[in-house]
Design brief:
two-stranded antiparallel sheet, 17 helices, globular, binds protoporphyrin IX containing FE, binds copper (II) ion
């Protein structure tokens, strides 16, 4: 690979050490690192909120009767807001936060291409979140995160349903603006010597995701606009009695939302590629295959939407959508085998990041297999709208995206805060989460196969034992999250100092202090060659140069302070 010169700014000038004061994160900033943290903190808030709703859902499902909820409407609102919050206010913004923080650093750039636009995209999220939650007091949204008419039209009279749609509109605009920024940054701001084939795979993943967002999200906006018009302006796009068509929503919504499941998982795939190769000290296996399979997924992802509508689809259209849905498993399989190839013969360090990476790999395979099962029409007709689907989507989104987010947090937290997370707590978090996750979601396959429908508060008594097991595991899963939250807070105060490059990684975000100074890089340029060249003599030389410039911290943490290490003096 070509040698890359990391551009350095501020040569010869004293660069102030970055501060981590809370108030800096509460106001408008165009620094991509602050914006990245703003995304992540906001998303974490919604994760906790959405998680609390999940606990209530599982509480209600402890018995077959309607006991805790006043009525079905209360339950409908719970799963509607739970699903919407987890997808649109947790996973998507959290991964966008990683992208914001890391993309300019990985490219050796000062910032994103459009810093102001970046801040604007973030600041659309808090009002959207408030709108979503305020709907609770205005006649709740209760049509599920998919909001099919006529559930979302004539059967959801409250204004909350309209606010739900407006909130999603804002989130969609935010996503599109963010994605445009990523595409322009990645295509234009790479340092000399870094062609597209030298980009870290996380950058490839964000590029593929951004292309999907720019192409797909306008369709969500279109569907939402029609829905809002039907609700407030008396149109009848979705009202069959007046010549409308309910399936119109399903087609347009899934034309966005199937690609959107890849918006939620491709960045996590990118995290996995980084984490596995760094913590296994192995060059990534099949670099180009991983990069190009993301692009293939982006493309094929637009041809499978009707697999969500098999039960309402004309029979002759089922086969083509079944075939494309099965084809999309191929690029995903290519990635899985490339990651296994990366691990093979590696010097695996079982750090918390690596454990969650392996957890991701194992759980995602189960979700991928249930996906292919669902793509098969005869199976789908049998289990559509049952707990089998609930199980599938949680294996890919929780076992995949959320485990990927966890792996990324353990991996990049030291860069973002200058402090290490406690590894023993990390391992405890992994073990409890992994086991309770499995027992929360795996039995849902069986309930689904036996015919338990999704989105119901009242169910047949024979499903109770399964549901009690699921609920108890879910409560443990909920509690396990607090191990991570505690670890994060404690790390800010008493965590070991991280130094610039605690994992001895080769991508550029580690070639500067933790956290990086404003504009990211200072001092003499660093010569850098291969982001995945672990075990090569060039990598050893490069790491030596970095060590000299940013000596690893030697002193134990003394005072209780969240102030990071000062900027480097150079050498
Ligand atoms: C091997 C690739 C995959 C295939 C073939 C596949 C197939 C399917 C099918 C056929 C359904 C519809 C089930 C039904 O309602 O009858 C479905 C649902 C779903 N899938 Fe996948 N899937 C795959 C991967 C993924 C991934 C990677 C994600 C997310 C990261 C995902 C997220 C979802 C979600 C959220 C739903 C449920 C939507 C709802 O609420 O109705 N899937 N999948
Ligand atoms: Cu789909």
């Amino acid at each position: 690979m070509a040698s890359i010169t990391v551009p350095q700014q501020g040569l010869g000038r004293a660069i102030p050490a970055p501060s981590l004061r809370v108030r800096d994160y509460l106001r408008w900033s165009v620094d991509h690192k602050i914006i990245g943290v703003q995304y992540m903190a906001t998303a974490l808030f919604f994760f906790i909120f959405g998680g609390a709703l999940a606990m209530l859902i599982r509480w209600e499902l402890l018995t077959p009767a309607l006991d805790m909820m006043a009525d079905g409407t209360a339950y409908n609102t719970l799963f509607t807001i739970h699903g919407t919050v987890m997808i649109f206010l947790w996973i998507i913004p959290m991964l966008a936060g990683f992208g914001n923080y890391l993309i300019p650093l990985m490219l050796g750039a000062k910032d994103m291409a459009f810093p102001w636009l970046n801040a604007f995209a973030f600041w659309l999220i808090p009002p959207a979140g408030l709108l979503m939650l305020a709907g609770w007091f205005m006649g709740q949204a209760e049509a599920g995160w998919t909001s099919y008419p006529t559930l979302s039209t004539m059967f959801s009279p409250g204004d909350g349903q309209t606010m739900w749609a407006v909130s999603l509109h804002l989130l969609g605009i935010s996503s599109i603006l963010g994605a445009i920024n990523f595409i322009v940054t990645i295509l234009n701001m790479r340092p000399a010597g870094m062609g597209i084939w030298q980009m870290p795979l996380f950058v490839w993943a964000i590029l593929a995701t951004s292309i999907i967002i720019v192409m797909a999200t306008p369709f969500l906006a279109g569907a939402l606009t029609l829905l809002i018009l039907d609700r407030v302006a008396g149109t009848s796009f979705f009202n069959p009695a007046a010549g409308g068509d309910v399936l119109l929503w399903q087609n347009v919504f899934w034309f966005y939302s199937h690609p959107a499941v890849y918006i939620m998982v491709l960045p996590a795939f990118g995290v996995l590629s980084e984490v596995l190769s760094v913590h296994a000290r192995k060059p990534i296996f099949g670099y180009r295959a991983i990069a190009l399979s993301s692009m293939a997924i982006a493309l094929v992802g637009f041809t499978v939407w009707a697999h969500h509508m098999f039960t309402s689809l004309q029979p002759e259209l089922r086969i083509p959508f079944m075939i494309t849905s099965m084809i999309i498993a191929v690029p995903t399989g290519i990635k899985i085998f490339s990651w296994l190839g990366t691990l093979w013969g590696g010097k695996i360090h079982f750090t918390s990041a690596m454990l969650f990476g392996l957890g991701f790999l194992s759980m995602f395979v189960i979700g991928g297999i249930s996906g292919v099962m669902l793509a098969s029409v005869p199976v789908n007709i049998h289990v559509h709208d049952t707990y089998f689907v609930v199980s599938h989507l949680h294996f890919v989104l929780y076992g995949g995206s959320v485990f990927g987010i966890y792996a990324g947090l353990y991996h990049w937290w030291p860069k973002i805060t200058g402090r290490m997370l406690n590894e023993r707590l990390g391992v405890a978090h992994f073990v409890v989460t992994y086991i309770s996750f499995f027992f929360t979601f795996f039995p849902q396959h069986l309930a689904g196969l036996q015919g338990m429908p999704r989105r119901v508060a009242v169910y047949a008594p024979e499903f109770q034992t399964t549901n009690v097991i699921i609920s108890v595991a879910a409560f443990v899963l909920g509690i396990s999250t607090f191990i991570l939250l505690y670890n994060m807070v404690a790390s800010l105060y008493v965590g070991k100092r991280a130094g610039a490059n605690p994992w001895r990684a080769l991508t550029l975000e580690w070639a500067t202090t933790s956290p990086p100074p404003p504009y990211n890089f200072v001092g003499e340029p660093v010569q850098f060659s291969d982001p995945y060249g672990y075990g090569t003599p060039e990598a050893a030389t490069y790491l030596d140069v970095l060590d000299k410039r940013f000596p690893p911290p030697s002193e134990p943490p003394s005072e209780v302070t969240a102030r990071p290490a000062p900027a480097p003096a150079g050498d």
